[in-house]
Amino acid sequence: MASSSSSPPVPLSSASASSSSMAATSSPCAACKFLRRKCQPDCVFAPYFPPDNPQKFVHVHRVFGASNVTKLLNELHPYQREDAVNSLAYEADMRLRDPVYGCVGVISILQHQLRQLQVDLSCAKSELSKYQAAAAAAAAAAAATASNGPSTANFIGGVAASGSQNFLDAANQNATAIGFGGRDHFFPMSVRDAAPPPQPHHMMMRNYESELTARLGVNGAYDAGLMAAMNASAVSIGHLGGQFLKPSAAGGDDRPGVGPS
Amino acid sequence: MSTSYSNLSSNDSNPRRCAACKYLRRRCAEDCILSPYFPASLPQRFACVHKIFGASNVTRMLQQLPVDQRAQAADAIASEAYWRVQDPVYGSVGVINLLQQEIYMNQRELARTQAQIAMYTAQQQPTEVTNFGPQQDSVTLERTFLEFNHFPNLF
Fold first, then answer.
1. Are A152 and B141 within 8 A, CB to CB?
2. Average pLDDT of the residues of chain A
3. Is-contact B73 B62, C-beta < 8 A?
4. CA nearest A163: which of A132, A119, A189?
5. Distance CA A248, CA A229 (A)
6. pLDDT tens for residues A82-121?
């Protein structure tokens, strides 16, 4: 890292001028303060590591290293860097809180929750289908007796069947599924042979499924080993991802804004 | 330096050099802390980890852990590095966000399904349907709607 130690000392005659110019400029950013170097006007860290939050850079530097962070940020567009820094800060915090699993511990907990939800949903849908079958049978029986004139049973059975079917049609449009692909050539060594979780039937949401499958890789197998090894959560999950994502990236309208933590 | 180069030439065919030492072009010691977790058969694994975390950071992180926890830690670090390489802006935080969105969608779906089940369960309340005469049909219908007064919201 470049330091100001090699720069010539400022003559006394220009000290006041330099001090006045220094007073006009902002104080060094947290990164340059920590690294004990002069904070240049084009410092890549300055917009994202303000001096009032030194711990943010300390954590990021301890986990990733300043040079790696510099390289990462230089590869991104300026409008992406704030989100990148905030996500790096979050990962660094999680890694320091949980030196073994870090962020992956949170991901495993969420995967477990999601899998449990999918099982519950599958059970609920099968139970619902039984009710629908019974209602359809009742409606058919009522229709058979309709020749005797309008009856309450016919009205309720017919309305219930058609109403519930409309409901189902609307509900099934948003059904979801998660696919856990296998990237055995990359991960993980400790749980490579674990089987992926069973997939619920007839549930698809292509946008999320394809993206999660691409990102998670073999995490179905990974999760089995992690959940066997780790205790459930001293980790606060809350709005973890949402606070780092702009609404356009998250695809939702109600995400909180992104800002330095 | 010459020593390292001579080792390099002699270790080119050394199958025991781990991916980390191969990448870093150094001699792989017998007690190399990275070799159990970064085998030569998975060069990309260490390449990602080195790009994101750096070899010295990973070494220090593993050294600070008990030996029995290092395998899981190395896997977690490799996963985070992989996700960060795939998504340089959000990394594993993006995965967390996707999972949270999936959980939210599934919770909504489950609530909707349970509401439908509740509707059917309420229908099965004991209301014996008999063949009424034409004069009593409207009264019976009105009582039925009053009893199941939440139905109009669903239909």
1. yes
2. 68
3. yes
4. A132
5. 37
6. 999 999 999 999 999 999 999 999 999 999 999 999 999 9
Q: How many CB pairs under 8 A join A and B?
A: 241
Give the one of B53, B99, B120 whose C-beta lies nearest to A107's C-beta.
Answer: B99
Tokens of B140: 């019976």
Rounded to two decimals, the ipTM of the complex is 0.71
For the entire predicted model, the pTM comes to 0.62
Residue B110: closest C-alpha in chain A: A121
Can you give the three-state secondary structure of chain A, one letter per residue?
Answer: CCCHHHCCCCCHHHHHHHHHHHHHCCCCCHHHHHHCCCCCCCCCCCCCCCCCCHHHHHHHHHHCCHHHHHHHHHCCCHHHHHHHHHHHHHHHHHHHHCCCCCHHHHHHHHHHHHHHHHHHHHHHHHHHHHHHHHHHHHHHHHHHCHHHCCCHHHHHHHHHHHHHHHHHHHHHCCCCCCCCCCCCCCCCCCCCCCCCCCCCCCCCCHHHHHHHHHHHCCHHHHHHHHHHHCCCCCCCCCCCCHHHCCHHHHCCCCCCCCCCC
Nearest partner of A45 among A2, A6, A13, A91, judged by Cα? A2
Tens of pLDDT, residue by residue over A206-227, are: 445 556 666 665 444 444 444 4
Residue A88 contacts B, CB cutoff 8 Å? yes
What span, in angstroms and rounded, lies between the C-alpha atoms of A88 and A65? 11
Measured CA to CA, the distance from residue A85 to residue A72 in angstroms comes to 9
Chain A segment 113-132 residues within 8 A of B by beta carbon are: 113-114, 117-118, 120-121, 124-125, 127-128, 131-132
Smallest Cβ distance to A100: which of B72, B79, B105? B72
Sites in chain B below the pLDDT cut of 70: 1-15, 126-155
Tokens encoding A59: 């954590």
Q: Do A151 and B52 touch (CB under 8 A)?
A: no
